[in-house]
Amino acid sequence: MEKFLKFIQDSKWIFAKTMSEIPHYYIVRDNLSATDQKLFDEFREFIDEKGYVKKFYTKEYKYIDIQGYKYWIIENILNREEIKN
After folding, report:
1. What stretches of 1-85 adopt beta strand conformation (E)?
2. b/e map of 7-33 (b: 16 or more CB within 10 Å)?
3. What is the band of 56 on the pLDDT scale with cuts at 50, 70, 90?
4. How far apart are CA 50 and CA 15, in angstroms?
5. Helices 2-10 + 34-50 axis angle, to 10
6. In the chain, where the domains are located
7. Contact 79, 24 (CB under 8 A)
């Protein structure tokens, strides 16, 4: 888990401005270093194993909640959204 925390803390997140009605951030796997691409893939497996299913628009994805954010992957994009109570 520590390596994932470091990965998500050290990554440069981009605001998804085309979806401003659902404020969230993302990183693209293809723009990462080889080391971070490996971590991205491991994080995807972690979400698949430990996550929960939730709908995003019309499709269901696996999510995981970590330190006040929910994370999910769509193809080669890791998304995160702040959890609001």
Report:
1. 14-15, 25-28, 52-56, 59-66, 69-74, 77-82
2. bbeebeeeebeeeeeeebbbbebeebe
3. confident
4. 26
5. 120
6. 2-82
7. yes
Query: pTM for this structure?
Result: 0.91
Identify the burial level of 39 via C-beta atoms within 10 angstroms of its C-beta, where 0-12 means exposed, 13-18 middle and 19 or more buried.
Answer: buried
Question: Are 62 and 51 a contacting pair, CB within 8 Å?
Answer: yes
The confidence score (pLDDT) of residue 10 equals: 93
* Bridge partners, 59 (sequence order): 56
CA gap 51, 4 in Å, rounded:
14
Two tokens, residue 47 = 């979400």
Q: Which residues, 6 or more positions from 21, have their beta carbon under 8 angstroms from its beta carbon?
A: none
Query: What mean pLDDT do residues 12-41 have?
Result: 94
Which pLDDT belongs to residue 1?
Answer: 79
